[in-house]
Design a protein that fits this description.
The protein has a five-stranded parallel β-sheet, covered by helices on one side. The chain has a five-stranded parallel β-sheet with strand order 11-18-12-13-14. A five-stranded antiparallel β-sheet has the order 23-24-27-26-25. The longest helix is centred in the last third of the chain and has 18 residues, at 733-750. It has 28 helices and 42 strands. It starts with 7 loop residues before the first strand and ends in a 5-residue tail after the last helix. By secondary structure, it is of the alpha/beta class. Helix 12 packs across helix 14. A hairpin with a 4-residue loop joins strand 25 (344-351) and strand 26 (356-363). 33% of the residues lie in helices and 23% in strands.
């Protein structure tokens, strides 16, 4: 019996994108060669740093940006030391030393230590509230600062990270200002025209910019930052200061270990450092005198390194760079000599209405560079033309209009270009996925949809800008077997049925339980999933009020405990204040609760309510009991349902008020509260066209006028910003209540789960909604159905919990299970 050859020991210092990607590439080539150990300074699994900006902005959660979860390490036999930084390397003994006295030997070592944020040596740099933007801890520090009332942030640095930090903080409610030394934002990627458009786009998103400004001193008081002083004497006040002025390779370990270091750890074309058993990859590397900070070159490095570690010929020859980014929600691309110069010709396209600017630079009949703002779909095509040195004289006249028009006018099939791509052509820059990896996965694993491809290869799973190209590869690979997604998407992967088909079947077939729905509609899973169960639970509640019993296990944690979970595991509690009105007794009760339970933060919300932040889960029932005793009920700030009805003071107090907006708002909220909906619903009532309650950006709004009431629908002021449309005009307050109630019920019956009102309106059409709510008979039927459903919904969940219902939610077992993945 032969004895198995012991595996070589591969140690990786760095649990980030470069280190883990290098391991993935090694495992792909030879999964049995190495016993892998990874050290990470952060106490968490590998995640996508590129996606930290959406986390800061509230567009994604940390779980959404995890690249390799715990199962990946376990399934591949990888030992992970998370939160344990390596303190030294001994190349002679081939050992690494980590915090806590841990020693680990290696046969091969990969340095993937990344880079450190550069901090300007300004006086006051050590004040509390001065942070960088590099990892999740930095994001959490910024989020903590953003919850303070009227908080202000100053960001030093107008590059990508600085702008993303400012945008994210503005999305979180902070007044954000970017200070940049140069006169053009992102001057390394954008020309002056694109920089101007970016500045305007940021202003529209609530971010102020100060250009051509040099920082002199960070000022503070009692150890806390209070402002940034500029060379010209101006002081920009702030509660948070973010330094985003660049990065430098983290070479400390390598330098102390005696490896050759210049700006970065010096490596050859096989990514080998000056010690033959030590390799390096990522932002810590210097290759042929060049350091890289973008993901595309790092993925190329990882492939070369993996080849070298598995007996292949690892050859990295450097990277030709292009930059495709989504800056504050705007698509941007740049490559090559985008600023032009002597001997260059510029081709420029501008679309002022769409905020689009394109500039292609031609030199000697070839594409020498490009900068695209607002529409970057053709960036990859221009980049390919540039790298290939293609002669573009024959397509000069249509080049600026992009690939589809250019090739279409030339009689070419646009899909032929995808077919001609080599398998090594990179399709997804964020995750470094090439065409061959996608086609192989489609063929070997029988993938048939974009979601399948994303799940297996990660292509288009991050920023999504490569989605059209991935779909073209999918179509090309499947040929006649490709079925394009047309019309509404399925409710989830458990069923091909759409949300509309499911809703209709529940009513038409009299399906009154979740098992009945799954059986009748032939669900492919025994119990559904985290996507379909909450949707089915809502559809059944809406269709059969009083008959279907709410399944709390099909609700998210916020709706199960009637409070919003915070990042530290505590909760926020928002008592309802009808129409934004309160009283000294209610305010006194809130203050008493805050003091009694040592609640750390009390904040006025944008919806005219008071938010108690940092409530311990064990304290929730007692907090509710005290608020109930003062006559206050749940504000449903956690719910897919009515949140708030915001009002102005109206004719009672305002000299411009035309109607009693406060009274109408209170009436609406007391009538509509407790109702569930496909998504959160917010209302507002303004007492005159000056619109102080901001009724024209809510789901439903009322603007009072001299002749009566304008009823509005379909506004949004979150991730999507959209003004309302006028649904109808009525003469009396009663009519306004009838119309809004009917529209609300129509949305409840017809909307798809998690579909906001404005998206529902776009799908079904404003005229279709108007026709139903203005027809007297239809409106009355909708109104009556809503009134009936409220008999079972208008119940204070806090009072029920105080009375002892569902106490199991507060037992230690349920708490342990709360964050366990299904």
């Amino acid at each position: 019996m032969t004895q198995a050859t012991p595996k070589l020991r591969l140690v990786v210092i760095g649990n980030g994108m470069a280190g883990c990607r290098a391991v993935e590439e090694v495992l792909k080539r030879d999964p049995d060669r190495y016993a892998v150990t990874i050290f990470g300074a952060e106490p968490r699994v590998n995640y996508n740093r590129i996606m930290l900006s959406p986390v800061l902005a509230g567009e994604k959660a940390f779980e959404d940006i995890v690249i390799n979860d715990e199962g990946w390490y376990r399934d591949n036999g990888i030992t992970l030391h998370a939160g344990r930084a390596v303190t030294a390397i001994d190349p002679a003994a081939r050992k690494v030393f980590a915090e806590g006295g841990l020693e680990v030997g290696y046969d091969k070592l990969i340095l993937a230590t990344g880079s450190d944020p550069f901090r300007l040596p300004l006086p006051g740099g050590d004040l509390k509230g001065v942070v960088t933007f590099r990892d999740l801890d930095d994001v959490n520090a910024m989020l903590a600062a953003s919850v303070k009332p009227d908080a202000r942030a100053v960001v030093i640095g107008g590059g990508l990270l600085g702008l993303e930090a400012a945008y994210g903080l503005a999305r979180r409610g902070m007044a954000a200002t970017v200070v940049h030394l140069m006169d053009v934002l992102m001057e390394r990627q954008l020309d002056e025209s694109a920089g101007y458009l970016l500045r305007e786009a940021l202003a529209d998103r609530g971010v102020e910019t100060v250009l051509g400004a040099q920082s002199e001193e960070i000022v503070g008081e009692d150890g806390q930052v209070t402002g940034l002083k500029l060379k010209d004497g101006r002081v920009l006040p702030c509660d948070l200061l973010v330094m985003a002025v660049g990065i430098r390779p983290n070479t400390t370990l390598a330098k102390v270990a005696g490896l050759t270091v210049n700006r970065g750890v010096v490596v050859d074309d096989a990514m080998r450092a000056s010690d033959p058993d030590v390799f390096a990859v990522g932002e810590c590397v210097e290759h042929r005198g060049q350091c890289y900070g973008l993901v595309a070159p790092i993925w190329e490095m990882c492939r070369a390194l993996a080849d070298a570690l598995t007996d292949g010929e690892g050859v990295y020859q450097g990277s030709v760079l292009s930059t495709r980014l989504k800056v504050s929600g705007v698509d941007v691309f740049s490559a090559g000599k985008f600023a032009g110069g002597e001997g260059c010709e510029d081709i420029v396209f501008r679309d002022a209405a769409r905020g689009v600017y394109k500039r292609v630079v031609i030199e000697d009949g070839k594409v020498a560079g490009a900068v695209l703002f607002g529409d970057a779909a053709d960036g990859g095509w221009y980049f390919d033309l540039m790298k290939a040195g293609a002669d573009v004289a024959g397509i000069r006249e249509t080049l600026i209009f992009g690939r589809v028009i250019t090739e279409g006018l030339s009689g070419l099939d646009p899909s032929a270009a995808v077919a001609a791509m080599p398998d090594t052509q990179e399709i997804c820059g964020c995750n470094g996925v090439c065409k061959g990896a996608i086609t192989s996965a489609i063929t070997a694993q029988g993938l048939t949809s974009l979601d399948d491809v994303r799940a297996v290869t990660k292509a288009s799973a991050s920023c999504g800008s490569c989605t059209p190209l991935v779909e073209q590869v999918l179509k090309l690979t499947l040929g006649d077997g490709f079925k394009a997604q047309t019309g509404p998407k399925p409710i989830c992967k458990c069923s091909p049925k759409t949300n509309g088909e499911v809703r209709r079947a529940i009513v038409d077939q009299g399906l009154k339980s979740m098992p009945a729905v799954m059986q009748a509609l032939e669900w492919s899973t025994p119990d559904g999933c985290a996507s379909c169960r909450p949707a089915l639970n809502y559809y059944l509640l809406c269709a059969w009020p009083g008959e279907y019993r709410d399944d709390k296990h099909s609700r998210f944690i916020n709706e199960r405990v009637h409070a919003n979970i915070q990042k530290d595991g505590t909760y926020s509690v928002v008592p309802r204040m009808w129409g934004g009105m309160t009283s000294p007794a209610e305010l006194r009760a809130i203050a008493d609760v805050a003091e009694k339970f040592a609640i750390p933060a009390v904040k006025v919300t944008g919806g005219q309510r008071i938010d108690l932040l940092g409530v311990k889960k064990d304290d929730l029932p007692a907090v509710w009991a005290d608020l109930n005793a003062a006559g206050m009920v749940s504000g449903h700030a956690y719910a897919k349902g009515l949140r708030t009805v915001k009002t102005c003071v109206g004719s009672d107090w305002c000299r411009f008020g035309t109607q009693d907006s406060t009274g109408l708002g209170m009436r609406l909220e007391k009538f509509l509260w407790g109702s569930w909906a496909p998504a959160k619903v917010k209302l507002a009532v303004s007492g005159c066209p000056r619109n102080c309650a901001e009724a024209t950006c809510k789901d439903f709004g009322v603007v009072c006028v001299d002749s009566g009431y304008e009823v509005h629908i379909g506004g949004a002021a979150g991730l999507h910003i959209q003004g309302t449309q006028v649904l109808t005009r009525v003469a009396t307050e009663d009519e306004a209540v009838w119309v809004i109630t009917a529209a609300m019920q129509l949305y409840r019956e017809d909307g798809w789960y998690l579909e906001r009102v404005y998206k529902w309106m776009d799908r079904v059409g404003l005229e279709a909604i108007r026709a139903q709510v203005t027809d007297p008979d239809t409106r009355k039927a909708l109104y009556d159905r809503f009134v009936y459903s409220q008999r079972f919904a208008r119940i204070d969940p806090w009072a029920e919990r105080v009375a002892g219902r569902h106490n199991e939610e507060f037992t230690p077992m349920s708490r342990r299970m709360e964050f366990v993945s299904a």
